[in-house]
Write a structure and sequence with these properties.
399 residues; six-stranded mixed sheet; ThiI_N; ThiI_fer; elongated; tRNA-binding
């Protein structure tokens, strides 16, 4: 069967009422971005479908990329013909012949989206099925469990014939839910938090805290690679590398050891929030899971959150580690995250971090240092990288 189109179906977008066109247009643009290296493709959007005209392009790679795009419920390789019964029957016969093996069974499932078409659904099923039976030798009909289910969708502009559905990623088109800043550490959790936020339509910018010479260039490379993996789900991502050495050294010198972790997280949130405001971004995202480590108890969150009134999205808050690891493996970030290069969150971890820190105490410890000046200096010296699918090879060549 020669496929000349891909037919894309929506999930949640279908419930968006008068705003549906905004979501469809966003999804169409996201698909274009992911398939930008296929300039021959032609895109057409309607209220309930997006059609991609392949124009001779190899569909195998395109199919794999479409599986990762949020907002797609399912999609099918399709062949297109004129909405005229004789042409539909001939195209159906060609499709069945190209796909069938001896002793296969088949079924025709017609959908008459064009209510002006002269035949109803039952008549379409009968005429197409009869034509296939008469012109083949080894095929029989099985309406319950056929080897081939030939779907025929008759629309006013054309008819599309498909035989197999690919499952899409679901969710909402990236960007339809605004933009948030993801705090990406280099561990297992935060990339998963980014992935789940993308699935709900949130576009990402990423911030990473880098503390040379305590953290290496390979740790920085790990974060670039993690960001690159996330581009498969949302297109290019802006990555901000924050110089964090001076702040961490000051915390180690001025704050009691069991409170250094709390103070470090507070400074990270302060910096992220200042950069978020500068970039006109709506929220922050973290990979926190309740109770997983000392800084992720409710008491710690109260003390850390006090530095900002900005909404903080925590997609993993009720997940256990095994659930998070399973998603990390599924999306391709796990193997990168476990590379043995420490980030700034782990290099100064105290032996006995406070699990129930007091807000008034950490505030008092920090009051002896002008952290605001250090925070502003860190934001002003940020290194920003635009990470795309092509960037990994470029950065790998540096090491």
């Amino acid at each position: 069967m020669k496929f000349d189109h891909i037919l894309i179906r929506f999930g949640e977008i279908s419930t968006k009422g008068r705003n549906r066109k905004i979501f469809v247009d966003r999804l169409k643009n996201n698909i274009r971005d992911v398939l930008t290296d296929y300039p021959s493709l032609v895109f057409q959007g309607t209220r309930d479908r997006i059609y991609i005209h392949l124009n001779g392009e190899d569909h195998d790679v395109i199919v794999e990329r479409l599986k990762a795009i949020f907002g797609i419920q399912s999609f099918s390789l399709a062949t297109k013909c004129e909405s005229e019964i004789t042409k539909i029957k001939e195209q159906a016969l060609q499709a069945i012949k190209s796909l069938s093996q001896p002793n296969d069974t088949f079924k025709v499932t017609a959908k008459r989206a064009d209510k002006q078409f002269p035949l109803n659904t039952n008549e379409l099923n009968y005429q197409i099925g009869s034509h296939v039976l008469i012109n083949t030798e080894d095929l029989t009909v099985d309406v319950k469990n056929p080897t081939i289910n030939l779907r025929v969708e008759v629309r006013s502009e054309a008819t599309y014939l498909t035989c197999y559905d690919y499952k899409g990623a679901g969710g909402l088109p990236v960007g339809s839910g605004g933009k948030a800043m993801l705090l990406l550490s280099g561990g297992i959790d935060s990339p998963v938090a980014g992935y789940l936020s993308l699935k709900r339509g949130v576009a990402l910018e990423v911030i990473h805290f880098f503390s040379p010479p305590y953290t290496s260039e390979r740790a920085k490379q790990k974060v670039i690679d993690l960001t690159k993996e996330l581009t498969a789900f949302g297109g290019k991502i802006k990555l901000h590398i924050i110089p964090f050495t001076a702040i961490q050294e000051k915390i180690q010198a001025q704050v009691p050891e069991n409170y250094t972790m709390t103070s470090t997280r507070r400074m990270m949130l302060k910096i992220a929030d200042e950069l978020r405001e500068k970039q006109q971004i709506l929220a922050l995202i973290t990979g926190e899971s309740l109770g997983q480590v000392a800084s992720q108890t409710l008491e710690s969150m109260v003390a850390i959150n006090d530095v900002t009134s900005t909404p903080i999205i925590r997609p993993l808050i009720t997940m256990d580690k095994e659930e998070i690891i399973d998603i990390a493996k599924k999306i391709g970030t796990h193997e990168i995250s476990i590379r043995p290069y420490e980030d700034c969150c782990t290099i100064f971890t105290p032996a006995s971090p406070k699990t129930k820190p007091k807000l008034e105490k950490v505030s008092r410890f920090e009051s002896y240092v002008d952290f605001d000046e250090l925070v502003t200096d860190a934001v002003n010296n940020v290194e920003t990288i635009i990470v795309t699918k092509e960037k990994r090879d470029e950065f790998n060549s540096l090491f």
